[in-house]
Amino acid sequence: MKISVVGTGYVGLVTGTCFAETGITVTCVDIDENKIKMLNNGKIPIYEPGLEDMVQRNVAKERLFFTTDIKESLVECEAVFIAVGTPPDEDGSADLQYVIGVAREIGKNMNQYIVVVTKSTVPIGTAKKVKAAVQDELNKRGSNLKFDVASNPEFLKEGNAIDDFLKPDRIVIGLESEDAEKIMKRLYKAFVLNNHPILFMDVPSAELTKYAANAMLATRISFMNDIANLCEIVGADVNLVRKGIGSDTRIGHKFLYPGVGYGGSCFPKDVKALIKTAKENNYTLEVLQSVENVNDRQKSVLFNKLNNYFNGNLKGKTISIWGLSFKPNTDDMREAPALVIIDKLIEAGAKVNAYDPVAMHECERKIGNKIHYAKDQYEALIDSDALLVVTEWNEFRVPNFKVMEKLMKTKVIFDGRNIYDIAEVKESGFEYFCMGRKS
Predict the structure, then answer these.
(1) Which pLDDT band, with edges at 50, 70 and 90, does 158 fall under?
(2) Last residue of a domain, one of 156, 173, 200
(3) Residue of 329, 306, 299, 328 lying closest to 225 (CA atoms)
(4) Domain-located, residue 206
(5) How far apart are CA 430 and CA 223, in angstroms?
(6) How far apart are CA 172 and CA 128, in angstroms?
């Protein structure tokens, strides 16, 4: 079986590589010549544990190919996945120009029946627009070739994407014909054999499922952040509250950890897009609007704690930051809380020393040399007036407090992820401020 995946960003590259791992012949397409050259040399443009080895293995076995030529990729192709970006417009709606652009290229170059699958996260109704764009190009060619469209949203967690793809909780496929269903069943045959459930449904329901899932998870995060803030006010411990409600089988423990707000490529964009879709249909998603408001506010909470500690005077202070990516095991800086915190620190006149295991190059690409990028977590602490823990990387969880004490001017830690034991930190001689717990 041969398929094509258009777009070699996070979703496209993981999708194409994992399908190749199951024995399917996959051609990944991108207009970025430098990226394709890099991939053909066995290097990947993103950080995702295990992905580079898998790319190299499948390229060597001649199951995975990379090209800039979409026409070449469509020869004898049974399904083509659209996995290009859908960045948010200024009004919060998803920008579909790249998706529709690929659909037009498919219509111009397809040479047999094909299933056109949207893998990108797209608003409800996008499949209709994709179908119209493909058909328009076929009409211009005077071609009567048949095709179908399908929606196959991804549910990948950055840092755990390979397992999420190969061992999915569920596979959601929206389609509109038996021919398309046969091809999609063949494509996912390896997953059916491993008893992973495939949920077939209509296309609009599949499109909405992705947004609804991310919106629900974002809601849990914002809910717990709100509860954490209330815990501090009333003297409760959010860790105990979290364990108490998470033990309810109707609720569960996942995504109930308070912090400095959600970020990344999915939750912020998808929440905004779903709110916008509702408004376009004369409906207000009041709960989701509040979720977004809480998240925007939460990104400033750690800075506010720091600012209050220094009585509103951060000018000339050296502030250390551990963690820049929006979460561990990724270099993704999109909507990362660290960016908001850094902006506020610089605006207040502070100097920022930061360290992240993998995201410093991405941070530098986004904001340049506004801050100092340390070679390791301890260099970031030299002459520091305070440490902010923003991302809960494993290497930050058991620090050497004796070394920290020697490096820092002021022994104070502001923990945005609650990764330390309050008593242990205080016994080490540090002042400690965290999220939703008395410290």
Answers:
(1) confident
(2) 200
(3) 299
(4) no
(5) 30
(6) 18
**Cα–Cα distance measured from residue 125 to residue 276, given in angstroms and rounded to the nearest whole number:** 13
Asked, for residue 205, whether it belongs to a domain, the answer is no
Tokens for 315?
């000018």
Total structural domains in the chain? 3
Q: Where does 44-113 have alpha helices with state H?
A: 51-60, 70-73, 97-109
Return the HEC string of 124-172.
CCHHHHHHHHHHHHHHHHCCCCCEEEEECCCCCCCCCHHHHHHCCCCEE
317 plus 288 within the same structural domain: no
Q: Verify that 270 and 367 share a domain, yes or no.
A: no
Degrees to nearest 5, angle at CA 16 with 189 and 49? 105
Question: Biggest alpha carbon distance in the chain?
Answer: 78
CA separation (Å) from 427 to 24, 63, 141, 317, 431?
57, 56, 75, 25, 10
Q: Let me know whether 45 and 73 are in one domain.
A: yes
Same domain, 131 and 24: yes
Is pLDDT of 194 > 80?
no
Global pTM? 0.86
Range of the domain at 115: 2-200
The answer to whether residues 303 and 293 belong to one domain is no
Q: Is residue 438 one of the residues assigned to a domain?
A: no
CB 73 within 8 A of CB 29: yes
Give the strand order in the sheet containing 351-355. Answer: 372-373, 351-355, 318-322, 386-389, 412-415, 431-433
CATH code: domain of residue 417: 3.40.50.720
Structural contact between residues 104 and 137, judged by C-beta atoms closer than 8 angstroms: yes
Indicate whether 169 and 216 sit together in one domain: no
Q: What is the pLDDT of residues 252-310, one digit of tens each?
A: 999 999 999 999 878 998 999 899 999 999 999 999 999 999 999 999 999 999 999 99
**E strand or H helix that includes residue 412:** strand 412-415
266 included as an active-site residue = yes
CA pair distance 221, 258, nearest whole angstrom: 7
User: Which domain-ending residue is among 249, 267, 297?
Assistant: 297
The answer to the question of residue 137 being in a domain is: yes
8 A C-beta contact, residue 437 and residue 238: yes
At 424 the pLDDT is 95
Do 193 and 260 share a domain, yes or no? no
Active-site choice (18, 28, 77, 266): 266
Q: Give the mean pLDDT of the chain.
A: 94
One domain, residues 54 and 150: yes
